[in-house]
Amino acid sequence: MRHYLFHGLAYLLALSSATLVATHVRADDSGLDVRIGYLAWAPPTGPLLSNVIPEPEDAGLRGAELAITDSNSTGRFLKQRYALSDARTSTPEELLARARALHEQGLRLFVVNAPAEQVLQLADALPDSLLFNAGSPSDALRGEQCRANLLHSLPNRAMLADALAQFLATRRWQRWLLVTGHTPDDLAYAAAVRRAAGRFGAKIIDEKSWSFDNDQRRSAQAEMPLFTQTREYDVVLVADERGDFGEYLPYNTWYPRPVAGTQGLTPTGWHKTVETYGAAQLQKRFEAAAGRWMNDRDFAAWIAVRSIASAVTRLKSADAQAIRALALSADLPLDGFKGRKLSYRDWDGQLRQPIPLVHPRALVSTSPQDGFLHPVSELDSLGFDRPETTCRQFAAAD
Question: At what angle do helices 296-315 and 279-290 cross, to 10 degrees?
Fold first, then answer.
């Protein structure tokens, strides 16, 4: 009798196990659909003095699209399907409306390419979502205006300025002339340059504000030598984010000195000339898909989507809060073709990453520079370190 009971019990256990396995297989067969919203709006720049090459209208979007393709290439083996909902708009009001509409459809993961004011507005309007800022370099978004549901894949101005200042320090170019435009973005960039000068021992020997309203380019070129006449300097630092006048500074300064900042030698999150550590392969795939070079907004959107996909693969879930927690831990495997494992700072949500220093046709160097040490990560020598942060919402959320 015990023999039959034993076999009966074994049969029931086997049946239960088979049922559980079958249920698991069916769940796996159903797969996981991950929808990501792409929210973008760019304000008009207005007329420019220089013939600056404009930002591509699809900057950012093409990077996100390539990341969706990449994620689906690996995701199909795990039965994960990724889709991008494109919401590029012509007004900030429409952007907010489109974001809310996508939220009502169930989306909780977003990549945002917009000015700081709109990024903040979206983060506050979607408190249960996770947003990746791939468009605004604002330091305030990583500081006093930070939001717990907002991560940043684009380098902020403080990171860019520190990357440049480290390089100038290695060359011992420590006397700077700072030339600044008049827009709020130019003033913010100039503030980051001043901060970097203080951190890395440089001296700003003079500051000049470009306020000429003459729209004749020949006059601008003629003005530059006299405009840059002052005490001797080693390098001219320029803060002209929209490219209004800075293109005329190289080779037109009073002293024969290099130009750096928003023009000349430029710190950036990504550039065509970055080719090491497998980056050339990413560049080629992007150019085949988009028909142009990959820029910093494209890379920021690409790495944002790849951050989501890497987290989903690890978690087997697309829950926004779980992805956030993993992204802010040391356990998210994230390769950005920059020679180092990338990660998000848990005190302000900024992506740690090396910063290329380039001129239009060549990579000059990459920061952090050798010799600039840090007790945790040399990447934290760029931008706001933990003791310097003014972000309080991250600490409150965690």
Answer: 110
Of 357, 309, 316, residue with least CA distance to 334: 309
Alpha helices (H) in 76-227, listed in sequence order: 92-104, 116-125, 157-170, 184-199, 217-227
- How would you list the strands of the sheet with 235-239, edge to edge? 203-209, 175-180, 235-239, 259-261
- Residue-wise DSSP of 193-211: HHHHHHHTT-EEEEEEE--
Statement: residue 10 has pLDDT above 60: no
Flag whether 383 is in a domain.
Answer: yes
Q: Which of 267, 283, 299 is the last residue of a domain?
A: 267
Question: Nearest Cα to 238, choosing from 228, 225, 223?
Answer: 228
User: Mean pLDDT across the stretch 241-266?
Assistant: 95
Residue 366 domain-assigned (yes or no):
no
Provide the sign of the torsion angle of the four alpha carbons 290, 296, 302, 305, taken in this order.
Answer: negative
Contacts of 343 (CB under 8 A, 6+ apart): 330, 332, 334, 351, 352
Amino acid at 325: A
Nearest residue to 336 via CA among 314, 358, 353? 353
Residues in the chain: 398
Same domain for 259 and 306: no
Has residue 251 been placed in a domain? Answer: yes
Contacts of residue 190, Cβ cutoff 8 Å, sequence gap at least 6: 178, 180, 207, 239
Give CA–CA dist 205/54, Å, rounded. 32
Tokens of 374: 């840090």
pLDDT tens digits for 201-239?
A: 999 999 999 987 655 455 667 789 999 999 999 999 999
* 186 and 87 fall within a common domain: no
Residue 126: partners with Cβ closer than 8 Å, 6 or more residues away = 99, 100, 103, 108, 110, 149
Is the C-alpha dihedral spanning 17, 18, 22, 28 positive or negative? positive
